[in-house]
Amino acid sequence: MGILIFTDNPGVTETRLVLGEARARGIPTGLIAPWDVSMPGVPEVDADLVYVPSNMLNRGSTFELIHRLLILQELERQIGTVINPVESMLRYSKEHLTLQMSRLGLPHPRTLVTENVERAYEFAAGLLDQGRNVVLKPLCRGRGVGVVMLDRIRSRGDLLQFLAWYTRAHAQGVFYLQEFIPNQGYDVRCMVIDGEVVGREKRSNPEDFRYNVSAGGLAEPFDDPVYDELAVKVAEAVGFKITGIDVLPGADGTPYVLEANCFPGYTALIEATGIPIHERIVDYFQRLMKK
To answer: Most exposed: 90, 134, 266, 281, by fewest CB within 10 Å?
Structure first.
């Protein structure tokens, strides 16, 4: 009886923190990777829940995705509880967030998701012609990787050429374009666990429009609960039990939801606030195991 951590990246700090905290509390905790499991059949595991802390369904080959998804579904069938739920992990992408924000009527940057390079070009060129900036993002990656601003591209021929290059380098065939939102120079990450905000950080970067700490941003405590209700609503909409919701306060004060992270990093939040997020995660697991 205990916790099984299933990950393709066991060396990540957050994973080691949760593993160490669970074992320090005397909770039997195992760790396996996709290459430790051969199909058909998943070995019988004596665990109450499976924790998946890495983005193993959005990197690697299509064949690896299918194999890992089937393993997760078998683990879910055998054990019953996977965090985050397998269905939410399978749908995890910026596109899914955009769809949910549209359905909920929540503030979200004007966005286009398409495999059609001509439509991507028309969307970007239209905004640039209006004097607005455009941000191009990979559909599923995090940490600010591949996120670029198109403001320096003046020639429309250069724009089309750049989009063709970008899909090979980062987009893997799917363009995710957003209108850049003039803002107050920071965003706020709300860490949500089991429907409750357990920590917040304010992130800024005077040298870059990306506020990710991994991209050089600075993290500070953010004690105002003003975005908590919004963050919890978004977490529920995308189906995540553990998530980092990134909110961008616009220049006019409107809070725009930019990200709902299925596999959030939180070491910077711990360092900035002193809140032991890994302990809060294990608290949540213990509540689940008592049910």
So the answer is: 90
